[in-house]
């Protein structure tokens, strides 16, 4: 005997055979066969792409596919693309589709009717949850019960095939989620649902703040005991990343100003570290606008500064300057000297990016002095480091080394190993600019060792580009070429196009220095493209000049 059920059959003697969602090609085949049964001459069976879109909207669920086939059969003038457009607009539209005798909505209603009341309530509450999944802990907060209590209900939903769970996280299929969301009342949600969503948003914000404090904590600094250490906080952020980002977007749609402004702040350092600049920029813009809407000038200024830092990271320095100037204006009006110093430091870094070094030096010296007066050693170190970069670019090498050494000393004192390693990279760049290649290599080696100790492989590899520059300066071209080949390969895999452009530029220069223009030219051509695409016009022009020289080489080796 074969029996089918949405519930899991557990009685003795039953052998369970789970039927999963149909893959794309099989789902399309179901639609095609159903259309042919209704009309052997139905030419919509050839609308392959449209039928594939319908199948995706149905998530491979056999009943949904049958219902959609019936809808097409009842409307011979409707194309598969037209139906797909309707379905893709909203999961709830799939739920409402029917052929007069059956609908997905009715199936879900029957499943819900068999649930215990508290489990049925949890199903509705899960329709409020942002993101692709939810942890057991967050589900408990949402339901306002203990974790053991919510776990029992989640397992009951799993038995009914309404959720699936793995490693403490639970997710619903898009169609199930659409049904669950339809139970919450939309804009007219009952007060208990509003309170539940508020609890969940507050939980995400407070836990993200605790995680942030663990991640940014200086050596020996006390942190919230929510997480055992920085690694545990980072693991939580990794697991909740998509949920937290979606929470901000949902909060924006709902006008939840507190969540709109708080969560981007708490996610700032983590998302920068993960190099998720696209999401981070979106979140900071949301925070800026929410702060403006709420009249919170202090939070608006902070959000402008964070936005400026993201724009600097993506090499959009002119926009970054505008953001930092907005922050500076607000902090000045608020008579917040510390905030003003932070904005000046960011502005100086953006001026560096725009190669307006003399202006940057003036701004950064002022910022450094303000931090020194206020006793903020960490941010004074940041300003010193930016200052050292500006001084290097105007040829004031001794002052540059002094500024970097001051920053390095502060970072070492604070236990800021990653930042200290970055300063060693900058010191290597100054020494290499002076032609002190052996000393520069020693600085790069210190940085590389520190990055290795932190497990930051990307920075280890980036540092090798500087080392290779020194090897070329010491006429050790074979070693330089081997190092740069490895660097380029790694950066291609990591999708780090700007640093790939820098490495290819160095690789092209090294082949040219060896007299092999044929091998230099492809790397220089690619470097020009990458540096142009990643907003580095200065080095793009240098690479273009090197490319012209290589092409004009009288006797290239090939």
From TrEMBL:
One of its GO terms (cellular component) is cytoplasm. It is found in: Cytoplasm. Pfam families: TPR_12. TPR repeats lie at residues 421-454. It comes from the Bacteria. InterPro entries: Bac_ResReg_Asp_Phosphatase, TPR-like_helical_dom_sf, TPR_rpt. The keyword Repeat applies. Keywords: Cytoplasm, Repeat, TPR repeat. SMART domains: TPR (SM00028). Its main location: cytoplasm. Belongs to the Rap family. This is Tetratricopeptide repeat protein. The lineage of its organism: Bacteria, Bacillati, Actinomycetota, Actinomycetes, Streptosporangiales.
